[in-house]
Amino acid sequence: MRPPSYKAVVDEFAATIRSGCLSPGTRLPTHRQLAAQRRIALGTATRVYAELAAMGLVLGEPGRGTFVREQAGFDGLEPSRNLPVRRTADLSFAQPLADEQPDQLRHALRELANSGDIGSLLRQQPPGGRQHERAVVATHLLDRGIDTAPAGVLLTNGAQHALDTVLRVVARPGDVVAADALTYPGLRLLAAAHHLELAPVAGGAAGPDLDALDRLCRARRVRVLYTIPTLHNPLGWVLDRATRERMADLAREHDVTIVEDGTYGFLDSSAPPPLQTFAPQRTCYVSGLSKSLASGVRLGFAVVPEPLAKACAASLRASTWGLPALVSALATGWIADGTLTRLEKRRRDDARARQIVARTALADLDVTAHPASYFSWLRLEPHLRRDRVAAALAQEGILVSTADAFATDGNPPQALRLALSEPPLEDLPAVLTRLRAVLEAFPL
């Protein structure tokens, strides 16, 4: 079977771009110009550019045109982390770690070695975790405003695994999942893996446009609403109580299951209660300890309504069978003895200190950030393109995340997310000053 004729145009552009004959930043013909030049329909020309964008070769900028994309590989949903020079700072991934934590790990391992039944750690755990460890997490969640029995808590291999488990149960291939136009990249990966359609919901500085969500739910059969109400990733908003209440009302009105991501919620202890408390029978709350404890401690959890618990446990059995007993014992031990509470307090103080540094170093730039957040959202000047800025920063040893990773609507803005937790606090001013210098060095 012959391929569609437009494929020849796609292949021609792809070869020209990859060969370097079309350099990064080259503006391509408009859709109408391409249609006229190649004697193809306007819709076909649009499809050509859509396929090139999906291949990571071009960027479409509303109102400006289509441009050849920087091919260095330091932007996009899964950017390269192999820098061309020695790494100066990783601002692409939030992975806070306190200096004393290695010693805490040594102490905890000694405690486990001296425990009465260390052999139990060699046995298979049930899907969802052992009952006493689920009870520890349920008690911990009381401080988040969530009151649930241990049976309603399922332990997982990190928050991403919790999200994966829940989506497998509440959605089927082809289902529509409403999500913010900019949101957590892990959702996009799971949506692609499970063949779910992400329907973007526009938002502003304070949160999503709930009128737009209402219209979407009236126009489409939305199965799931994914939301990050406290310390949104990447925009940092914290939804007020009235917004949470209305979101819960909309979910009930349109029979939508809410999947609430609470991963960063611990950073703002003054936030309103989780959405789960407003609609407990239709909300699955997912979170983990990667940001509060350590990214290498892969313990996550899902709080699910009772009718979904059995199906979620079966999904866990199908994916991993059970948790690594050593990890769950370590993590729940740190929760039970108060280590996690102390670390969360330290993280909150640390995040606020870093935001103060960022506000000073990035003054007068278009930055959105919550004062308790570990990241900042930097909108670039009109003459700057996110892929070229990311590549230029990589040449300075600085990794960043571009808006491509977070966009669900196919039109990423010219913006970067800066994760502030990895560089030592005393080095952060110099890192951000260097980042600013790279931005200012681009010609107008």
Automatic annotation (TrEMBL):
UniProt keyword terms in alphabetical order: Aminotransferase, DNA-binding, Pyridoxal phosphate, Transcription, Transcription regulation, Transferase
One Pfam family per UniProt: Aminotran_1_2
Top-rank lineage group of the source organism: Bacteria
Record domain HTH gntR-type: where: 3-71
InterPro entries reported in the protein's UniProt record: Aminotransferase_I/II_large, HTH_trans_reg/aminotransferase, PyrdxlP-dep_Trfase, PyrdxlP-dep_Trfase_major, Tscrpt_reg_HTH_GntR, WH-like_DNA-bd_sf, WH_DNA-bd_sf
SMART domains: HTH_GNTR
Signal sequence, renumbered to the chain: none
Keyword Transferase appears in the UniProt entry: yes
GO terms of molecular function: transaminase activity
Family according to the record: In the C-terminal section; belongs to the class-I pyridoxal-phosphate-dependent aminotransferase family.
The name this protein goes by in its record: PLP-dependent aminotransferase family protein
